[in-house]
Specification:
This protein has 295 residues and is an alpha/beta fold. The protein is 51% helix and 14% strand. Strands 3-2-4-1-5-6-7-8 form an 8-stranded mixed beta sheet, with helices on both faces. Strand 2, helix 6 and strand 3 form a beta-alpha-beta unit. The protein is elongated. 44% of the residues are buried. The protein binds guanosine-5'-diphosphate.
Length: 295
């Protein structure tokens, strides 16, 4: 791991005395450090460059307050700008209909099934909801089985239609069943592939069109670095999703994907996954992510 950026910025500014203002000359070295930190965190090169230019514009000419060191001030400018670019605030999912329908999308292995369970568990325990999980992966019996195991562990019912090869029909029937049985949230786990594939895209587009979900969420593995951005872009072009779920943040990634995805698709990151257990879920806090990316 590289040296903590906050310490580095304070160090490079310690050498400068007197001017009382942040100038182009004394900021150049610091911006290089910032860019390096972003690249280390797997932020896309162009995004890192644009970011440092923004910070430069903000910082230059600013008077350094008597009470703070210039290094500390730069750290604050960088931190705040990063948090701002990642949305500034937490964004919740919006559940207004009865039942509210949440459609999960993403590649196989991104953590969709696990996250579906975590979200159901959270809605049940924190918001006293009565969710129904739906297995819409018609290709992999193991995926259906996995969702059943997840459902059992959190005591949430799982709707399946084994042998049926029409995910639109399964989703519609599940919503009917939820209405009949008083489930106020329906979470639909869909099939994923290891890479983007036209048939998968058409299938999930068709599900979205048929059920008009309250929330379409895109799940992405934060460890996949720059690939995460391309995947997010393609899914967004096809689905115009409402929010991003960044999983596996318990790994050693710095989470630069959060900045890249947010910048490219301009959709809020709503939750993060921080482990394999059903309670390893948190709302996305831009300020905390900013700390993590900068180290
Ligand atoms: P899906 O194919 O998109 O449904 O992905 P899964 O939910 O099956 O997850 C793939 C693997 O990642 C499983 O082994 C999960 O236990 C694991 N996983 C999912 N979310 C997280 C997370 O936030 N942290 C960690 N460490 N592992 C996760």
């Amino acid at each position: 791991m590289f040296e903590n950026l906050t310490d580095r910025l304070e160090k490079s500014f310690k050498l400068l005395k007197g001017s009382g203002q942040i100038t182009e000359i004394n900021v150049a070295e610091t911006l290089k450090d910032v860019r390096r930190a972003l690249l280390d965190a797997d932020v896309n090169f162009k995004i890192a460059k644009d970011f440092t230019n923004r910070v430069k514009d903000k910082a230059i000419g600013q008077k350094v307050l008597e009470s703070v060191k210039p290094g500390q001030m730069m750290v604050k400018i960088v931190h705040d700008e990063l948090a701002e670019l990642m949305g500034g605030e937490t964004v919740d999912i919006s559940l207004t209909k009865s039942p509210s329908v949440i459609l999960m999308s993403g590649l196989q292995g991104s953590g969709k099934t696990t996250f579906s369970g975590k979200l159901a568990n959270r809605l049940k325990s924190k918001q006293k909801k009565n969710p129904l999980l739906v297995a819409c992966d018609i290709y992999r019996p193991a995926a259906i089985e996995q969702l059943k195991v997840v459902g059992e562990s959190i005591e949430v019912p799982v709707y399946t239609e084994e042998g049926v090869k029409d995910p639109v029909k399964i989703a519609k029937n599940a919503i009917k069943k939820a209405k009949a049985e008083g489930n106020d949230v329906v979470i639909i786990d869909t099939a994923g592939r290891l890479a983007i594939d036209e048939q998968m895209m058409q299938e999930i587009e068709a599900i979205k069109k048929a059920i008009d979900p309250d929330e379409t969420l895109f799940v992405v593995d934060s460890m996949t670095g720059q690939d995460a951005v391309n995947t997010a872009k393609e899914f967004n072009e096809r689905l115009d999703f409402d929010g991003v779920i960044l999983t596996k943040l318990d790994g050693d990634t710095r989470g630069g994907a959060a900045l890249s995805i947010r910048t490219v698709v301009k959709k809020p990151i709503k939750f993060v996954g921080t482990g394999e257990k059903m309670d390893a879920i948190d709302v996305f806090h831009p300020s905390r992510m900013s700390d993590r990316i900068l180290g």
